[in-house]
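Preliminary data (for renewal application), protoporphyrin IX containing FE complex.
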Amino acid sequence: MENLTQPDSQREKQPRQKTAAQRLWSIHWWMAAVYLLLFVGGSFMADLPKEVTYRGTLYGLHKSLGVLTMGLLTARIFYLLLKLRKKKTAKRPLPNWEKIQAIALHTLLYFFMLIVPVSGWFFSNSFDKDVALFGLTLPRLFPPNKALAEVGKNLHFWLSYSFLAFIVLHTLDQRKFLRATLRRSRQAFQKRFIDP
Ligand code: HEM
Ligand code: HEM
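Predicted structure:
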């Protein structure tokens, strides 16, 4: 609640409470950055020969970042529900076809954000390997089973790259936003360094 007893100058100094939509937006970009590391690192480490000394470190880092995305996803779903609850109270027009397509694509992205790290966890545990979050060993969710480990490996591979395909589709869908952001960044760069 607004503190009416404080002078204006002090009230301005208080940090503003971020809305659910703003938090959702910043989680969106943090997760996008972590996914970039997972895709680049994942495809690089999977091709490394077994003798390479830093291979284990890369696998550990990949698993930790993958688990981190699961935590971020939980926070994201929480803020999404908060945002949707607020929207529900306001009267909204019925969604048109474009809106339905966007909702379907976003739902698919959420599905992959959940299933891809779960498949990685399944692969590791069924291969009789632990999953750790930056050194903290996490519980085993799946029993060791070498026959299923091969299925898990294939599952993680195909789900990861299908996820990537939908990310590309989403980026294309948002190309207007991407173009405007690039234009703004170019203008800011020009103003700061070339034409001050
Ligand atoms: C890297 C993986 C990415 C994933 C998993 C992802 C996922 C999502 C999801 C699920 C939404 C719906 C809002 C939400 O629940 O957060 C969304 C919104 C959005 N994303 Fe992404 N995104 C990714 C990358 C990108 C990239 C690279 C761009 C740049 C073009 C982008 C631009 C946007 C925009 C502009 C929205 C808002 C759309 C709207 O509200 O109409 N996203 N994204
Ligand atoms: C959203 C999160 C994740 C993404 C996007 C992702 C993506 C990838 C990609 C692209 C590869 C390379 C596949 C290949 O080219 O063969 C890979 C490999 C791998 N990932 Fe993930 N991953 C994620 C989460 C996880 C998690 C949580 C774990 C384990 C707990 C994990 C375990 C592994 C392992 C062990 C490999 C190596 C597979 C091999 O040796 O062939 N990943 N991942």
